[in-house]
Amino acid sequence: MKALLYHGPGARALEEKPKPVLIDPTDAIVKITHTTICGTDLHIMKGDVPTVTDGRTLGHEGVGIVEETGAGVSNFHAGDTVLISCITSCGKCGSCRKGMYSHCEHGGWILGNTIDGTQAEYVRIPHADSSLHRVPDGGDTEAFVMLSDILPTGFECGVLNGRVQPGDTIAIVGAGPIGLATLLTAQFYSPAEIIMVDPDANRLAVAKSFGATKLVQNNPVEEIMKLTHDRGVDAAIEAVGIGATFDICQSIVAPGGHLANIGVHGKSVTLHLEKLWSSNVTITTRLVDTVSTPMLLRTVLSGKLQPKLLITHHFAFADIMKAYDTFGNAANEKALKVILTN
Amino acid sequence: MKALLYHGPGARALEEKPKPVLIDPTDAIVKITHTTICGTDLHIMKGDVPTVTDGRTLGHEGVGIVEETGAGVSNFHAGDTVLISCITSCGKCGSCRKGMYSHCEHGGWILGNTIDGTQAEYVRIPHADSSLHRVPDGGDTEAFVMLSDILPTGFECGVLNGRVQPGDTIAIVGAGPIGLATLLTAQFYSPAEIIMVDPDANRLAVAKSFGATKLVQNNPVEEIMKLTHDRGVDAAIEAVGIGATFDICQSIVAPGGHLANIGVHGKSVTLHLEKLWSSNVTITTRLVDTVSTPMLLRTVLSGKLQPKLLITHHFAFADIMKAYDTFGNAANEKALKVILTN
Amino acid sequence: MKALLYHGPGARALEEKPKPVLIDPTDAIVKITHTTICGTDLHIMKGDVPTVTDGRTLGHEGVGIVEETGAGVSNFHAGDTVLISCITSCGKCGSCRKGMYSHCEHGGWILGNTIDGTQAEYVRIPHADSSLHRVPDGGDTEAFVMLSDILPTGFECGVLNGRVQPGDTIAIVGAGPIGLATLLTAQFYSPAEIIMVDPDANRLAVAKSFGATKLVQNNPVEEIMKLTHDRGVDAAIEAVGIGATFDICQSIVAPGGHLANIGVHGKSVTLHLEKLWSSNVTITTRLVDTVSTPMLLRTVLSGKLQPKLLITHHFAFADIMKAYDTFGNAANEKALKVILTN
Amino acid sequence: MKALLYHGPGARALEEKPKPVLIDPTDAIVKITHTTICGTDLHIMKGDVPTVTDGRTLGHEGVGIVEETGAGVSNFHAGDTVLISCITSCGKCGSCRKGMYSHCEHGGWILGNTIDGTQAEYVRIPHADSSLHRVPDGGDTEAFVMLSDILPTGFECGVLNGRVQPGDTIAIVGAGPIGLATLLTAQFYSPAEIIMVDPDANRLAVAKSFGATKLVQNNPVEEIMKLTHDRGVDAAIEAVGIGATFDICQSIVAPGGHLANIGVHGKSVTLHLEKLWSSNVTITTRLVDTVSTPMLLRTVLSGKLQPKLLITHHFAFADIMKAYDTFGNAANEKALKVILTN
Q1: Are residues D32 and D142 in the same domain?
Q2: Do C71 and B75 lie within an 8 Å CB cutoff?
Q3: Nearest-CA residue of chain B relative to A280?
Q4: What is the mean pLDDT of residues A118-138?
Q5: What is the CATH number of the domain that holds A10?
């Protein structure tokens, strides 16, 4: 089969590779129909993720059709259309029992990382019963792809951890795909004001069309303190992953507020405890658990959530090299999420 | 009357000062029978708290007898024995309505800071109805003094924010008075293991007698990771206020765990988001709200909590200069809390 | 001044009465500009509320202008436009400190019950600082009247107690004003399905226009179990106050679900513990605390909530006797809330 | 092997039966070393549980040694000493994913109910990975048997659902084994007062030795309202399962309080909504989920919980017929829990 392989920093190739086979009785083999590229895949391509080794098939998102299941799989059967969670969970370890699938002792984020991933024609999914979700045949398959990672990430790490509540004023710092996914799902809780912060005017315009009530392009701290009458925001959501944006967040969070970090940080940051020690704030970090995926699926099926808004480009899977180029040049290409179809 | 006055960094004196009078209808005048000295008073004496100006009467803790009340005070009357909360709260602003009295728009920590405090024969208490608590006459008055600040601080900032739960393994970094108050109140939630960390062997011995199950004097990170089989702790509670102890806490908190900061920090710290971004941790800061004081009073009255354990030294109020010397030299004097009696 | 007085079951009259005066320093006198009639007022007129005695001015809802304040009132001044909360709270007792204003030791529901109410030209508001809310002059005053009682009641007793969550399937049994207020505020949490139950087709049509996703007029238990594939609903909200509707709720609540009672019940009901003991359900009751009023105000001001949808009829205050007739004949008059303007 | 079989109401016998064998790949066969008898087994013997059919091996509690595991079992191996949960959970269905194992789509309470149970020499445990818990060899095995059902039941249905908090005043109505298990585990949260209610003086004496602070034998409502100065209790926990005790609970629960039902009810009860509708109470029901078992295990291992206090009688398994007689005559025999050893 064809697969997109990692060959060290900067080196990727679409190559032939043997089709995966069942290894454990809890495995399923899924024929990928739709996949996408994640910002994390770009991090990997820079060499930032040392657990990814030469020859690994990348990708941890996708929708497909179950081809074959191990003897221990009972929830799924050949022919089922399934959504692949970016997090693999055994459902039985202590972490899974607490709903913290991201730290599953036998799973977590392994697809396209420590085992072969979804940017291929077929993928092996371990612990299939608790790592796949059935989706209706012929439904809006592209929308479902957004549920593999980006929407649960924005929702769990940003919205739930940020404790967004009706009537709140919140700020989302970063209007890339993950910030926009946060914006879409924050509206589940009807905050009164959603301030979107990004230096890119195009992304802010998209944010406005997605429901942001205020846009801030420059001098974010000053602007947001002015907008909030010097009170700050109830939730400051970091959706970039660098020190500068984390700094904005700690400067704008109101006493009693929440700073929810989503961004993947490569470096430590300075935490201003000399100011924050007395300000009753809560700072959270999280690798998505995908515990909210069944709920998100219901909201998509009921029409409350429109994940397709995030999709800007389409490619055939055979053109995945070109899709990486487009996604890697997102600002110029005005790209959010790309869909690859087998 | 006699009062302990601040005269700039390093300079304090016991002097005569006019007895306070009612200013607002919501004020009460309280005759102090018992007070104490807080670690924060030592910070003030170092010049670390610029809101404290020359001539200020220090102190924000104490028990006394109501002498006189304004027309707007309805909960208290002359002759009532009362506990003075270190936090003044109006009960009517947005912060008070949310239970965040520390950020009361008309109060907060003002006693011995922006208005005259309790290290005197008399004190004026603004917003008396919501800033005092009635205590039984002739009860164990010294024990109640511990409820002005240290016990709600340990409990709210450390135990509640640390979400200590039955069966948890927790670590308290710092076995000074505030760490020990945390240790006492953490036991309300029956953690399975309480690891106490301090370089001072005497304080660790005290911690053991207060209920610590494990003591760590050296190499805290290595020791705690060994004790927890490399899992880390469910709650890491910072009870010192410097970068080194905050560092210990971020190194030992388990995935999904809580890092509860109690310490008053004078400098920023380094937050290792490059490791923590994916570890699902929650970091909290808090100035005590004293929202738990009524509950703590009940537990003292029912005998479940023995705050007197924290008291090591007694002085007449006339000897408060000497009491500061003793408390300021706590390690050598084996001092925890000192009681001053008028 | 003119006031609507209760003279025993079935007897009410618009009469002259002395204008109220300040009694306690925490009082305010408010000139009523807008008021309304509550279903509870109809209960009173039937003689169901024995605490209401002959000569009482009815009414516990309204917007007005502060005329005069006592010496102890600091948040409001003459000329302020204010929303009157149906619940009076002192802000200082144990219940108020917990946010349970409905059980305030010095307040609770007293307006138009144990003291004179708002269906008059002027009203005395005890504990004004914590029982009034400032609203913008010239704003949409009629909309704010809905925040005195009906919207916080639907939201707190129905939506918050019912723990409505994104993606949930909920049922609201009763599409009268209170059920519709619940429907409006339930959407703050983006449930996937809101099933509205009422025998009145007109009210169901209104519910549909307000956002209900499914309507059930007959055989509610059978219909709802069919709609939910025999699973039942995550939240069953009782908005009527009789045994039959409570019965529907206990028959349709799913394992792990919430039954939130809003209705004012005059009789005991049968609780089917022989079925429910093992079904992990939570049943709640609540007299509204109006703790959510500031948040609801923000959502109205930001345009997220449109309380005017609930208003069907307008009268001059001088025509309040006729307004009672209309509201008392709500089904035929297709009346929801009526607004009375002074 | 020997097993205790149900042969219809009133009829039980210790008989020979084939040793169970693996059926599904997720099964384990466990050799029982210790088991016990539950109050529910007595209900079954009365014919109250129609899902139990003739020939069923009773029992849903026990500790044993894994004899054999199916191909899909990965957490346990032959030779492991294990605690058997009374609730079987697949870990993969929607209910299990929410931690509501009691309503597992493929499990729940099935042992000794719809499949053969633990009052035998061997038992087949479906979904072994998520329905067994490893315990240390040679530990205090008898204590662990109390973790199969009675301690998680008292803790989850009574203490957690009752939201017992430090400083609370709670009442436990019924001092049988389940009420006493609630009493033991309520102390994890340090309530200030625990009022124990039972007509049996011996059971009250046991309760006192277990930590009850007040005992009430007669006129419970009057006595408790007197003890609480007419306020009522923060949590009223029903540990019997009849209308009369549920009535006590609804009469004594304070405004804002919790009524946590543990008892297995055979009949409906009268709920006094005409009083309770406005009292802001929460009523809960629950079939134990055993989600707290790992935590309870840790507290037993750390010595915080002494489940052996509940054990009054010991029998060889061969004498189980006599053990039933003793347990069925608990008041006269002063029996709490009996241990049967193979």
Answers
A1: yes
A2: no
A3: B286
A4: 94
A5: 3.90.180.10
- Residues in C closer than 8 angstroms to A294, CB to CB, are 167
**Chain D within 8 Å of A55 (Cβ-Cβ)?**
no
Yes or no, beta carbons of C299 and A190 under 8 Å apart: yes
Residue that finishes a domain, picked among C265, C284, C303? C284
Question: For residue D66, what are the domain limits?
Answer: 2-149+289-341
A166 touches C: beta carbon within 8 Å = yes
pLDDT in tens, B297-308: 999 988 889 999
CA distance D48 to C192: 39
For this complex, say whether ipTM is above 0.90. yes
Domain count, chain D: 2
Look at B192 and D304 and tell me if their CB atoms are within 8 Å.
yes
A240: closest chain B residue by CA:
B277
pLDDT in tens, C40-57: 999 999 998 999 999 999
| Beta pairing partners, C249 | none
Given A269, A284, A299, which residue is the final one in a domain?
A284
Beta-carbon contacts of C332 under 8 Å, excluding residues fewer than 6 positions away, are: none
The span from the CA of B183 to the CA of C16, in Å, is: 65
Shortest CA gap B194–chain A (Å): 21
Q: 3-state SS of chain A?
A: CEEEEECCCCCEEEEECCCCCCCCCCCEEEEEEEECCCHHHHHHHCCCCCCCCCCCECCCCEEEEEEEECCCCCCCCCCCEEEECCCECCCCCHHHHCCCHHHCCCCECCECCCECCCCECEEEECCHHHHEEECCCCCCHHHHHCCCCHHHHHHHHHHHCCCCCCCCEEEEECCCHHHHHHHHHHHHHCCCEEEEECCCHHHHHHHHHHCCCEEECCCHHHHHHHHCCCCCEEEEEECCCCHHHHHHHHHHEEEEEEEEECCCCCCCEEECHHHHCCCCCEEECCCCCCCCHHHHHHHHHCCCCCHHHHEEEEEEHHHHHHHHHHHHCHHHHCCCEEEEEC
Same domain, yes or no: C11 and C142: yes
Q: Are residues A132 and A236 in the same domain?
A: no
Tens of pLDDT, residue by residue over A174-225, are: 999 999 999 999 999 999 999 999 999 999 999 999 999 999 999 999 999 9
Nearby residues of D4 by Cβ (< 8 Å), 6 or more positions away: D12, D13, D14, D57, D58, D59, D119, D120, D320, D321, D324
| Position C313 pLDDT exceeds 90 | yes
Of all residues in chain B, the one with the smallest CA distance to A260 is: B282
- Rounded Cα distance, A324 and A333, in Å: 12
Positions of chain D with pLDDT under 70? none
- The band of B95, judged by pLDDT with boundaries at 50, 70 and 90, is very high
Has this prediction a pTM greater than 0.90? yes
What is residue D331's predicted lDDT score, i.e. its pLDDT? 87
pLDDT at A170 over 80: yes
**Phi-psi map region of C62: left, alpha, beta (phi>0 left; psi -120 to 50 alpha):** left
Which CATH number covers residue D239?
3.40.50.720
What band does B230 get if pLDDT is binned at 50, 70 and 90? very high
**Same domain for D259 and D230:** yes
Residue that wins the pLDDT comparison between B49 and C120: C120
> Are C180 and C206 contacting, i.e. CB atoms less than 8 angstroms apart?
yes
